[in-house]
Amino acid sequence: MYLIKVTMAQERRRKTDKIGNNNGSVTLTIPSHPKYLYVVRSALYPILTDAGFNRKDARRIILAVDEACSNIIKHAYAGDTTKTITMTVTDDSDRFTVRLRDYGRKTDPMKIVPRDLADIRPGGLGTVFIGTAFDSVTYDTDQEEGTLLTLAKKKQRVDI
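Now predict its structure.
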């Protein structure tokens, strides 16, 4: 049996101000099985739209997070579906941040490079999607075990 755990640092409100401020965080822990990635995608969409992102940007961010989780399953856990991935989403007034925590094999950030887009073949574009969806991508391997991936995107101010 798998456990999916959700915690909220602050009650999420459905109403936000004009630029999507909703200060708070949500933490979701899922099994490291690809069939549970839909939970990540389903949880992210309303949080992103509530934070003020349009549908196109929300979908781009969701695709990037899905790719990052797939990479964790494939590379950090070598396909082991008995581990967990913890996603913490923080919605601040000027920045939206997703932190993905794994407890698998540490990644070498210097070896994570997007492949050349001229090299047409299936797969290998996850880091391209991640890099275009987020303003900042940081791999913290200073954890006792595993990696903390931090993905951050500045919010666009809408002056009315």
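The longest helix spans residues 55-76.
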